[in-house]
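As practice, study what follows.
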Amino acid sequence: MKFKNAKRIEGLDSNVWIEFTKLAADPSVVNLGQGLPDISPPSYVKEVLSKVALMDSLNQYTRG
């Protein structure tokens, strides 16, 4: 290998997404954490999501 990773990132080859992907590989598991649905959600779900989206305190981002 021509390039080597910096020592400061050694041991970081595992993270939550790698673990989720491994778990989701089981055919009996429905992985709702990745990908895009190919069906429209029910009306009651869209109604609740629209109310939640109007709240200023919620977002998908973590603290820096």
In short: The two ends are 32 Å apart (CA to CA). Residues 7-53 form one domain.
